[in-house]
User: Fold this.
Amino acid sequence: MSFHPRMFTSVRGFEPLCDVRCLAFDQMTIDYWRVRGRARAGGHYVSMHPRLVFVLDDRRLGLTADKAAAPLACACCYIPGGMEVWGRVEQPGELRHLDLHLSHRRLQALIGPNTPLDKPIFLTEWDDLAGLTNLLVEEAQHPRRSRAHIERLAETLILELFHQAGSADQSDDPHETRLKQLGLYVRRNMEHRISVGDLATVTGMSRTNFTRIFRETSGQSPYQWVMEMKIGHAKNLLQQGMPFVEVASATGFSDQAHFNRMFKAATGLAPGSWIKQQDSDQFGSILQDIHT
Assistant:
C-alpha cells in the first residue's frame, strides 16, 4: 500500500528547478528535491508523520524548533510527527535535499521500542551517511534496483542516522553544538582565510546576529576565536619541525611576516624564540628526570 505524507508548508524565496522525484512504499515515501533559493529564503513546516531530511552538496539548512531561537545549520535531521520547524538558507543558490517520510508505526518497528521518537535530531555533519544518501538520490532519479532493495537502503540510512545521533552528545546546549560545528569547519579550512561571514554562513545566521550571539555566549569575537585555533595549530606544526613559511601557508596567513606578527601578538614571542623556549623547557625537564 502506498503512503502519502500529510504535511503543511509555507515557504518564501524558493523556486523548484524540476518536479519532485518520489518513490512510494508501504508507510514510507522518498522525495528528492531540487530548488533554487534566494538569500535568506525560508519556510515553516509541520508534518503529521515523522520525517528525515538530508541536505546535499555540502550545503546546510538552518533549522530550529523554536521560532525565537537562532537556527542551527544542519546537514541532516529527524523531525518527529506534529513538530513545527522553521528553516532558512543564508546564501542564494541551488539546494538539493532528500526527504524520507514514514509512519510512526513503521519507524517505531524499525528503530525499536526503547528509542524515543518525540525529540528532534539535528546533525551538523553526515559524512558517514553520504554513501547511502547518494545511492538513494540516484534511485530517486533513475531507479535501477528492485523496490525491496531500495527499501532496505532507506531503512539502513534511517538506522544509521539514529546511530549517529546516539554517538553524538545530543544533550549539548546549542552554543556548544555550534562551537563544535565551527571548530570542524575551521580545522577543515585552516589553510584559508576565514572571515566572520564564512562562519555565519556555516551556522545559518546573518553576520550581525552571529557576531552578537557569539560574543554573548563565548565572551570573545569570532576573529579572536579563529585566531586562537590557528595559532594553536601553528604551534603543533612548529614543534614538528615545519619551516616557518610552510606553517604560515598551512594556517592561512598571507605570508611569513604576517604569521610572525600574529604569532607574537598571541604568545608574546616570535616563532623562533617560542621554539627555543620549548626546547629549553623540554631539555630542563629531561635533566631533572635523569637526576631524580
In short: Residues 186 and 194 are 8 Å apart (CA to CA). Confidence is low (pLDDT under 50) at residues 283-292.
